[in-house]
User: Fold ABC transporter domain-containing protein from Microbacterium album.
Amino acid sequence: MSGLELRVHVADRDVDVALEIGAGETVAVIGANGAGKSTLLEALAGFLRPDRGRIVLEGETLLDTESSEAVPPHRRPVALLAQEALLFPHLTVRNNVAFPLRHRLGLARPAAAVEAGRRLDALGAGHLAQRRPAQLSGGQAQRVALVRALAADPRLLLLDEPLAALDATAVPDMRAALRAAASGRTALVVTHDPLDALSLAERVVVIERGRVVQQGPPTEVLRTPRSEFGRSLLALNPWIAAVDLEALRAGLGDD
Assistant:
């Protein structure tokens, strides 16, 4: 089964991007602020309607501007994990995770509570089930948000700088959780961090001024950049040129 086919043109943002992601493939999209990365996420999630475009996920058309077809955000099999956890503050962790199980999958309240507990346990967050978001650290809240994002079993996972707001001590564990969640799942990661691209993605796409300017394996794109952003990334992170990126990538992939 095919994965994702995307073509979006947004005139007032000067974005014109075509992209394909294979079924089960994780792709990292990198680029400077204003390059068009957020536009892609907004279009995929259904928050933005491009002037022209087509989005097909596993054979299902989510958007086709020519036929005026557009699946609304709440009906798309897509989950977005942003920089902030955005948990419901009045609900416990268990009930935050149970929410999509009830409203997207139609589980009854008792069954949703049991399933929420199982999913929290699977990502090492079961001990947080009775807490409210205000009682969580940043890393704990983001882990719970990941469990909630996956609760409705989305066919496409969107990660928007999911580690950017975390304390440095929380990043390695959360990066490992994201790697496990994305494994075998069609996913798109927007990031500025080369370590995220190396550890999470099988392919990196560089966007500059609203256009795709380079794509390929993470080690190739990071080592031999063909864009202004890629070269600036290499300049700011000289370790990229100095270390064995394949060995580093293998190490980052270890549990």
